[in-house]
User: Fold these one by one.
Assistant:
Number 1:
Amino acid sequence: MYLFYTPDIATNHCLSEEESGHCVRVLRYTKGDEILLTDGQGSTYTARITNPHPKHCEFEIISQEKQAKGHDFYLHIAIAPTKNVERLEWMVEKCTEIGVDEITPLLCRFSERKQLRTDRLQKIVLSAAKQSLTPYLPKLNELTPFDVFIQNAKEQDKFIAHCYKEDKKVLKDEIRKGRDVLVLIGPEGDFSEQEIQDALQRGFVPVSLGNSRLRTETAGVVACHTAILMNE
């Protein structure tokens, strides 16, 4: 069954124009058909279509269910956008499917991309969540300067993944069950040495994601999957 996103379902029993068009025009749902909805906050609703209008499809709720998250900790990935934005979009899509809770694009010293359309990324997040039938929609933040971000990081366990040759922990060995996790992923040119030192002073632990040198977007997916896997 297809999942429709309805963030204001508590006060409005009508699909958005975009969701209505997909429901009625594309999927050919009609009056009396049952559909599955989510508010993006963990609740799913079974509803029945009462007015199959292609711009404002109305429905009545039959039942509601609050679904538990697949993990009992908060997972935040902060990553420098890639020069080729399609690679970042791929990473955002896959992390959403895996179960990330929050994504923050980082503006770093060596960032090759210094502007970012988060509205397009938000659509990718929504599409990935619906495709994977995930009732929790990850939070997507605006592009944030590195120094501002690390000053405000509140997660219990904070890690910075980089490629410099120095003593580093292995991320999978550092994940502790049930504790909130934040992982920083740098740009194609990596973090600057000063950025790493600033992060360490803020309590971040330097980590490796494995023996291979990973692309930025691959590192984001690996970090996300590692944190989820080590909490199972």
Number 2:
Amino acid sequence: MGANNNVETNSTNELQVRKDKLAALVAAGKNPFEITKYDVTAKSGQIFADFDNLEGKTVRIAGRIVSRRIMGKASFMHLLDGDGKIQCYVKRDDVGEDVYADFKKWDVGDIIGLEGFVFKTQTGEISVHAQKLLLLSKSLLPLPEKFHGLTNTDLRYRQRYVDLIVNPEVKDTFVKRSLILKEIRNYLDSKGFLEVDTPILTPFEIGATARPFVTHHNTLDMDMYLRIETELYLKRLIVGGMERVYEVGRIFRNEGMDTKHNPEFTTIELYQAYTDYKGMMDLVEELYKLLAEKVCGSLDIMYQGTEIHMGNWERLTMAEAVKKYAGCDYYEWESDEDARACAKKMHVEVPADATKGTVLIELFDAYVEEKLIQPTFIYDYPVENSPLAKKKPDEPAFTERFEYFINAMEFGNAFSELNDPIDQKERFERQVALKRAQEPDTTAQVDYDYVTALEYGLAPTGGLGFGIDRLVMLLTDSASIRDVLLFPTMKPQD
């Protein structure tokens, strides 16, 4: 406890010292917070990349002091800008005695502007020789200790702004996240998809299992719900004749939190008329291969110590997967009772009235998912857990649905979309009735307007949804979803 108090005391003392320095600057008419702009002509990355052309030329750079070495009449420091760190040489005779005196009072963490010429030191380090210096912003709090960095993960997530300063690899993750989104959009746009926006606030809770966040609209005097998916609005657009649409959407679910789940997260949902779930399967495989090449430079990537071969995707029905990994053959069960007996033999608990489809799902969860390390499509899901997917014409106990798994983690979900309004209405009503039976206080309703949309006619459609955050985790080798969210949800500190 004493050590923590000591750290807090040191931080408090440092804050006061820096406030006193700021007060002295203001009193001297040098308030850095009054400066509104600084014309930057080069960044560190550009200087390193184009040194041969920039050597000896004057540049104006700006950034944060992250280290420095005062040596009497001359000093070295490192400046951190948006591209990275660059060494700067500051000599009293070049910048002037008064400016140099001010410079020596500045602190690590301060943001400055520097004008000077590009050169290479005797040790061969590309640097900028300062001729003019200007303090642009005063840092009142010290950065974490130079050699220890910011390693406390809880503090890193709470103070991402500090994390980004002292841990350069963190910024790389978010640069890759931006690249991933850009490449996904480029790919879908090239396929003729149109990016759209649909409502985040919805008028009622739908019957899905995900629990929503509730808010209140004062003018309309009605509760509203943050969306748990973008699906139903996007399919309305397919009804309206927009044949290929997608949305990069923020989704909100009032549920648990762990290394794979955050209450708000980003998904992409896309819908394409006149194709089916097999068409979506081909799209996923092509897109993920492209992303691996673009972001990681190879189809073989490492994730948490496991090599993932993104160029090789296995395709198994759920029944085939359960037979392969659990040794249970769905097609040998002649009745629901046979299925329940098999579950008991495999030590898997199922409801007393479980159907063959329900048992298959439970066996999959218990025995299969953890084995799906390499990219695998699992398709043909039982109708029991697929309320929005079209039934297989030749096997109505199954639906034309798939999910895909990598490193024992589910990454996305796709359907041949149900476009029969009568069937859809019945499934919705059963879903809501079940939810009301399980949660008597629920406000879940059937989305009858969506049923009305289907009554106008939805073309045969393939639909796909996948999480951006898990995809970024995979392509940046990040262990937790919090590592790929700039500001993950955190419990407030006292």
Number 3:
Amino acid sequence: MAAVNKKKKKNPPIDQDFLDKMETALSALKTEIVANLIASNEDFKEIMEGEEPKDLADSASDDIDRKMLEAIGTQELKRLKSIESALTRIKQGKYGHCIKCGKRIPQDRLMAIPYALMCIECKSEEERRNR
């Protein structure tokens, strides 16, 4: 139990102004991603509806366009889920703390990746294991 109490002393609550700033940034990112997904979906619909008999090169180009839009959509959906998770952690008072070690994630890291789940050390360790 003593180790837990020491850990809490090392990790005081994050400044409310910073939390407000990050919540605003996350909400803006969320809005941007949703708009991009809607636009991508419209582009995807146009490609699909515009399908008419074409030569092989045009078909291949359209197929590549479709696959790129799908990949972008999948990536953006993952980011959207991460942003939603970060917004939830703000509400729960858990934002800005590594989900692995519990240490505070540096503000510089959160400014760069506002939906970061782990501190740099834990993220680096995870990436090394996944290689």
